[in-house]
Design brief:
Helices cover 14% and strands 36% of the residues. It has 593 residues and is α+β, with helices and mostly antiparallel strands. It starts with a helix and ends with a helix. Keywords: Repeat, Ribonucleoprotein, Ribosomal protein, RNA-binding.
């Protein structure tokens, strides 16, 4: 009973839960309870322990007064999740409308991902990502669940032509830029490669020397050469150092990504520019030329280039000879080499000069045929007086050059084109490429000179004109042109005459003008100089005629009839002669030619 008496029944008999404690005991109890709870803040990431798992939710204890529920779908990446596992969670709400703690693992992963990405940028960390897909200008890489952009230029040190080969593969990258405004992350794989290449580059440059043979990969091709990656160091293989033969573009013999062996030709002091060669790894073709090749030898080859001055014939790759345009034809008139050959032609030539030390040779193709000036029948074929037909090749102030056959040219002096026309320049009579009939006037085989004449195909009509246009005879003439010295007149038979200004006066005091067709009297005739001087004034003034030669009135045009209506002196003395008519027809035909 003593024990029962000691029991405090007043303290035990309480009316409600938690009653019966003194203030001090209650405060101590609350303190112990509060110490078992964790202080948490919303919108932060904390760690929690899995205390329950079912098909729909995962129950998480974070040390708060209540546990949180997280959808099972947010743990798909953890198929083996079990009670007791620790996971990171994002506190969205400490207590929602139902009094529950709201947690999110998905947001926790995203927050943690951005923290890791920012740390990677700050501390230059390497991240492993998964290439998800190709996009314009590069690739999309998944890092920590965040989609980052990998530009095409940052994939590798060499240009990438096919991005699709990287899709679905893991790749190590570094964060190079973060744009928080639109949550954009830019990464690079190239910087990792460049680091690895730095060691190789330093080793290559330290050991670099002329004549060293290296292996490299063709990374870029241009029309002037090829850039070769030697292992972190680029060198230029110029197009002229690819092959001993002539090539127009490197792609004719090389391909991108090919592995090639090259030799170091030169590099600057800073070792930033390296010149490489490929053809230097083989012997020069000139060194393997046949000993039988000498001046006069006939060779065969292919035309590889045509210039204004000639063409280059390739006998073998790296062995070329120049065929100057003057050695393409015996013709003395140089033409365009393209008239004789074109690129790709397979032709034969003769060696004219050969210098094996300087690796030069000149060739000729006209030497394959006989020089026409040395032919035995040259003297008889082009004897003085023989007639020929040729092509006008060139015009000069003093005449024209006529090609009678290839290599045989002759000069037709401007004075030998026409008996009657005064020709100042050959272009007034013919043009280049016209055909012209001529007669040989002079032949000099030793000096390769041939004088030709065209007018000599006809007899000299001035012998006949001397009787047709004697001094004192009257003819109707047309004024062709006029200046302060006089006028040029058109006479019968296509001849030209001249009248001084004072001899153009008419009877009424006016002057004969251009286009007028009036009578003129011959005052001077020179067969040697082919000159006829006339006067209109002399038709009505006797003193206008030269005093030494009395006027001799003969006319080819009707004059004024006498008062009696007679026909005196109406016809010219030789106007009706058959011989003159025939001469006129013959002259007109010659002028047309």
């Amino acid at each position: 009973m003593s024990n029962n008496e000691d029991f405090n029944w007043d303290k035990f008999e309480t009316k409600g839960f938690g009653e019966g404690y003194t203030s001090a005991e209650r405060a101590e109890m609350e303190k112990l309870y509060d110490e078992t709870l964790t202080e948490i803040s919303e919108k932060e990431v904390i760690k929690g322990t899995v205390v329950g798992v079912n098909d729909k939710d995962v129950i998480i204890n974070i040390g708060f007064k209540s546990d949180g529920l997280v959808p099972r779908t947010e743990f798909r990446d953890l198929p083996d999740l079990k009670i007791g596992d620790e996971v990171e969670l994002f506190i969205e709400e400490q207590e929602n409308s139902l009094g529950q703690l709201v947690l999110s693992r998905k947001k926790a992963k995203m927050v943690r991902a951005w923290q890791d990405i920012e740390d990677a940028l700050e501390f230059d960390n390497v991240i492993e990502g998964l290439v998800k897909r190709r996009t314009k200008g590069g690739l999309i890489v998944d890092i920590y669940g965040v989609e980052a952009f990998l530009p095409g230029s940052q994939i590798d040190v060499k240009p990438i032509r096919d991005f699709d080969v990287y899709v679905g593969k893991k790749m190590e990258v570094k964060v190079v830029k973060i744009n928080h405004a639109n949550d954009n992350v830019v990464v690079s794989h190239k910087v990792l490669i460049e680091k690895d290449l730095e060691k190789q580059k330093a080793e290559i440059l330290n050991n670099l020397e002329k004549g060293q043979v290296l292996e490299g990969v063709i990374k870029n091709m241009t029309n002037f050469g090829v850039f070769i990656d030697l292992g972190g160091v680029d060198g230029l293989l110029h197009i002229t150092d690819i092959s001993w033969g002539r090539i127009n573009h490197p792609e004719e013999v090389l391909n991108l990504d090919d592995k090639v062996q090259v030799v170091v030709l030169d590099f600057d002091d800073d070792k930033k520019r390296i010149s490489l060669g490929m053809k230097q790894l083989t012997a020069h073709p000139w060194d393997s030329l046949s000993a039988e090749l000498e001046v006069g030898s006939k060779v065969k080859g292919r035309i590889v280039n045509v210039a204004d001055y000639g063409a280059f014939l390739e006998l073998a790759p790296g062995v070329e000879g120049l065929i100057h345009v003057s050695e393409m034809s015996w013709s003395q008139h140089l033409r365009n080499p393209a008239d004789f050959v074109k690129v790709g032609d397979e032709i034969e030539a003769v060696v004219l000069t050969l210098d094996k030390e300087d690796r030069k040779m000149s060739l000729g193709i006209k030497q394959l045929t006989e020089d026409p000036w040395t032919k035995q029948d040259m003297v008889t074929k082009y004897a003085v007086g023989t007639k020929h037909q040729g092509v006008v090749r060139n015009l000069t102030n003093f005449g024209l050059f006529l090609e009678l056959e290839e290599g045989i040219d002759g000069l037709v002096h401007v004075s030998d084109l026409s008996w009657t026309k005064k020709i100042k320049h050959p272009s007034e009579y013919v043009k280049v490429n016209d055909e012209l009939e001529v007669v040989v006037l002079e032949l000099d085989v030793d000096n390769r000179r041939l004088a030709l004449g065209h007018k000599q195909l006809e007899e000299n009509p001035w012998d006949t004109f001397e009787g047709v246009f004697p001094v004192g005879s009257t003819h109707k003439c047309t004024v062709v042109s006029k200046n302060d010295k006089g006028a040029v007149l058109e006479l019968p038979y296509g001849l030209e005459g001249f009248a001084t200004i004072k001899n153009l006066d008419k009877e009424d005091g006016s002057q004969v003008e251009v286009g007028d067709a009036v009578d003129f009297v011959v005052t001077e005739f020179s067969k040697d100089d082919k000159r006829i001087v006339l006067s209109h004034t002399a038709t009505f003034r006797e003193d206008a005629m030269p005093s030494k030669q009395p006027a001799k009135k003969t006319s080819s045009a009707p004059k004024k009839k006498p008062a009696g209506g007679g026909d005196a002196q109406e016809k010219s003395t030789l106007g009706d002669l058959d011989a003159l008519s025939a001469l006129k027809e013959k002259m007109e035909g010659g002028d047309k030619k």
